[in-house]
Structure formats: C-alpha cells, structure tokens
C-alpha cells in the first residue's frame, strides 16, 4: 500500500484551482506559489482571500463591505469575511476614523447626503455609507455652519448676562468647536426684531422702497424668502390695525371711508391692501337687523314710541340709518294691513273691489291713469275681483246661473259677443249666440286705435312716433312736426 504525500490534501486543493502559499521556515513570510514544488521540508497552505484585509484590519484600518441593497460600500466595524461579499480598505480613513470613535464614545453624529445637501442627526447607528459625509455634532454646530458659510455670529457671556455682540474673530470656528460653557452664540439675524414683533402680534408692513406706501401683512411672513430687511417695518398703527386684520381673516366685513371725511363708510369687496395711506374699520354690527331685513323685503318700517308710531318713507337714507342705528328712536316693523293681500294684488295691477254702504254692491277699483288709489280702510270690505265675478256672486246668492251667464248679461245689454269652439279656433262674430256649453264666449274687445306722427329728436333728426287716444296729449308740442295718419287707425284684437 502506497503512503500518501505529506501535502496530499493541499495538492488536491491546488489541482482544484486553489491558490497555494509557501514559506521555507517559520521565521519567513508566506509567499504565493504559482507552481509549488511540494518539498516536504517546506510549509504550504491555502491562501486566505481576505488575508491582506485582515492584516489591515488588525493594524487598525477601516474595512468597507459592499451592501447590495444600498448598492454602495459601507464601513463595517466587525467584518464577517463572507466569501460572497466584496470587501475593501476604506479610502476615507482620516475622515471617518475620528467620527466613528466619537460615535462609540456616545457622541451625536450628523450625516450629509451629498445628492441632497443638508446636515441631519443620525437617529440610529450610522451606516457609514460611501455616498454620505459624517461629522460629530457640536453644541454650536448650526452657528459653526453659518460662520463657515460667511454669515455673522453673535456672542455673549452667560455668567455676566452681557448684550449680544457681532464677532469678528477670524478664529471663531475654533471657539465654536471648543464649546466654552461661559459663552453663548447665535447666528446674527437681521430680521430678528421683526420676527419677535410678529410673534408678539404686532403688524409688520412691507414696501418695495421706503418712499412709497407701506402695506400691512395679513398672513405670517415666510422670512426665509423675505425681501431685504429695509423693505419691512413694525407698523406705527399696529394696535389699531391688528384687530381689523384679525377680523378680516375671520371673515368679517371691512370698510374704508369715502373721501377724507369719515361720514360714509364703504364695504370693501376686494381684499383690503391695508396701506399706510388709507383708513379702515370693522363694519359695525347692524342695530336694527330684523327691521332692516323686513325693509329689504318691502315691508313698512315705523319709528316712534309711547303709542305713537309713524310710517317711514322708503329711501336710501332710511336703509343706511337702519344699518347704522342712527334713527335715535324706537323702530318696529309695521303690522300687516287687514287688507294686505288685496293691497298687494292692487299694486300688482289686478282689479280690486270695495263693498258699498248698501252692503250688497261691489264697486271696482281699477289701477291705472285716472284711477284714484283706494284708501283701504280697515272698516270697509275689499276683495280681489275674480274672473266671472258677477256670476260667482249670483251663484253664491242662490240665483240660477246659466252657462256663460256673464257674457249672456252683456249680450242682453247690447254688447257684441264672439264664440269659438276651442282654444285652437279663432274668435268669430255672431248675431245670435247658441250658448253651447262646450263653446267659449267673450265680449268682443274694442278695437285698438293708433296714429302715427313725425317728431324731431334733440340732434335734429326726424323720427316716427305712435300714440293712442289715451296718450296723444303726451306728444310734446315742441318736437311735434306733423301727423302721418289723417285719422285714428283701428286694429282688431
């Protein structure tokens, strides 16, 4: 039986493609053997793929592993040397090592993602990504960043409650890092007084230049996007403007005076500019709101008291007095008239009737030229005249009523009557109506009369006018030229 070679296992590994190393004695270094001699006096081993990295790690170097999820290298504090992971010596030794040591000491670390610049606190343990920058957060980090960016820094001693002074020391960055507990720093903010005034509720005004009007700001100012500081000021009218602006933001009506005198105030429809050249006020609450609503609906308003009340005539002045509460006396809505429904019908142009003193006869009150308005006494009876009113009254009195009774009575009185079979047929003249129940009948309307004439307008041009017998007297003599028609022209309805 043949005895296996001393290095048979390694020989098999080399044959399978493994990298072999050799050293001639224990005091020498391991060297890569491309074609090993397999001398029994030498030592051989399979080369560790991470041997150089492990050596660097033992010497205190930072090692990075490629994270397939993040698709980048990240520093690993305890490498596992997984053959499926790519490792490398970190190229940011000097940069990251002090930050990592500070993190292990419990200090707060900040990161900056270069693709989206800005420093943020690491809430959890940092990933130490290659795409991120890291730093130890100092107490005055914000102030330090501002100083490095060229901004002004203010400082004061906390033990003496000094005032804030702008720093000019060129080595201020070192002091900010050293964090002297007796000193307090802050970024100089030229808007600070304005911000503090705004926080107190004072009104801030803006102007493009100090020679123009100043405009009060009705909403909080976005100071990070603000105009130069000289474009702003604390309003000298802050105490009077603040409640007005708050009222406007709350949806209340704001007014501005018409002219210099504050006797008439106008409602502002557009958003007020609140400029320094104008005056404003919150629209006063309407004293007589219920009465004003009734007035706007057309009801009568009375003023007075102690049992004596007077109707107020409708006018713009009365409306404004109701809004302002300036009548100086009691106001009430006049109780509706006993005959209010009849009055409304009369005003709408309908014919109303009044019962005469005999207690049976109704008298027409027609609306129009030459007709006197009824007095509508509450002691008298009034009604709206309905179609076929006489027939209705006869029927109500128990009298026999024939079809078309009203037209029958007119025909008996000598008036001309016209029938038609239905609404689609024309009205026709007849000498003897048949009084068919399914026919319609009417008293023949009187023909309309008209007459044309020529008149001259103010520009000296002749125009044609038309008048009827009821209004021909209205033709102005000063502009009348001549009649076109010799006589009145009749037109059947």
Descriptive notes:
This protein has 493 residues and is an alpha+beta fold. Among the domains are: 8-47, no CATH class; 192-282, no CATH class; 389-443, no CATH class; 448-491, no CATH class. Helix content is 21%, strand content 24%. The chain is built from 12 helices and 30 strands. Strands 27, 28, 29 and 30 form a 4-stranded antiparallel β-sheet that branches. A 3-stranded antiparallel β-sheet has the order 2-1-3. The chain has a 3-stranded antiparallel β-sheet with strand order 5-4-6. Strand 16 and strand 17 form a beta hairpin. The longest helix is centred in the N-terminal third of the chain and has 12 residues, at 93-104. The chain starts with 7 loop residues before the first helix and ends with a strand. The model has no long low-confidence stretch (mean pLDDT 82).
Strands, count? 30
Sheet with the most strands, sense and barrel status:
4 strands, antiparallel
What structural class is derived from the secondary structure elements?
alpha+beta
Distance linking N and C termini: 145 Å
Low-confidence stretches: none
Overall pLDDT score? 82
Shape: elongated
Helix percentage range: 10-25%
Amount of beta strand: 15-25%
* Rg calc: 53 Å
Count of helical regions: 12
């Amino acid at each position: 039986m043949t005895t296996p070679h001393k290095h048979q296992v390694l020989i098999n590994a080399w044959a399978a493609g493994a990298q072999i190393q050799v050293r001639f004695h224990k005091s020498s270094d391991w060297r890569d053997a491309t074609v090993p001699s397999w001398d029994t006096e030498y030592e051989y081993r399979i080369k560790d793929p991470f041997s150089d990295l492990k050596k660097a790690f033992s010497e205190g170097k930072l090692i990075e592993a490629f994270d397939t999820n993040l698709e980048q290298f990240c520093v690993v504090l305890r490498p596992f040397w997984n053959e499926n992971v790519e490792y490398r010596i970190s190229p940011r030794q000097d940069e990251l090592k002090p930050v990592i040591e500070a993190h292990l000491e419990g200090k707060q670390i900040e990161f900056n993602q270069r693709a989206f610049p800005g420093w943020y606190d690491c809430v959890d343990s940092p990933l130490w990504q290659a795409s991120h920058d890291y730093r130890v957060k100092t107490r005055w980090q914000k102030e330090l960043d501002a100083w490095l960016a060229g901004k002004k820094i203010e400082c004061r001693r906390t033990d003496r409650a000094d005032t804030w002074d702008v720093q000019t020391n060129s080595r201020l960055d070192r002091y900010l890092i050293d964090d002297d507990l007796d000193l307090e720093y802050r970024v100089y903010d030229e808007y600070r007084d304005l911000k503090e005034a705004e926080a107190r509720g004072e009104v801030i005004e803006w102007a493009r230049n100090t020679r123009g009007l100043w405009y009060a700001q009705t909403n909080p100012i976005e100071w990070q996007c603000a105009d130069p500081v000289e474009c702003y000021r604390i309003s000298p009218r802050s105490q009077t403007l603040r409640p007005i602006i708050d009222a406007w933001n709350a949806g209340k009506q704001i007014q501005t005076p018409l002219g210099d005198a504050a006797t008439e105030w106008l409602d502002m429809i557009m958003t007020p500019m609140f400029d320094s050249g104008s005056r404003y006020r919150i629209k006063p609450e309407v004293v007589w709101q219920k009465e004003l609503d009734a007035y706007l609906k057309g009801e009568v308003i009375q003023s007075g008291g102690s049992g004596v009340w007077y109707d107020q005539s409708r006018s713009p002045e009365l409306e404004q007095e109701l809004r302002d509460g300036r009548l100086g006396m009691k106001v009430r809505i006049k109780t509706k008239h006993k005959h209010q429904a009849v009055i409304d019908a009369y005003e709408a142009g309908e014919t109303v009737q009044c019962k005469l003193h005999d207690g049976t006869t109704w008298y027409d009150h027609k609306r129009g030229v030459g007709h006197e308005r009824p007095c509508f006494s509450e002691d008298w009876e009034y009604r709206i005249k309905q179609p076929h009113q006489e027939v209705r009254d006869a029927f109500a009195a128990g009298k026999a009523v024939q079809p078309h009774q009203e037209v029958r009575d007119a025909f008996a009185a000598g008036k001309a009557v016209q029938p038609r079979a239905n609404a689609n047929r024309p009205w026709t003249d007849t000498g003897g109506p048949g009084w068919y129940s399914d026919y319609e009948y009417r008293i023949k309307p009187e023909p309309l009369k008209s007459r044309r004439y020529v008149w001259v307008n103010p520009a000296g041009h002749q125009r044609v006018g038309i008048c009827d017998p009821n209004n021909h007297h209205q033709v102005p003599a000063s502009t009348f030229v001549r009649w076109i028609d010799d006589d009145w022209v009749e037109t059947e309805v």
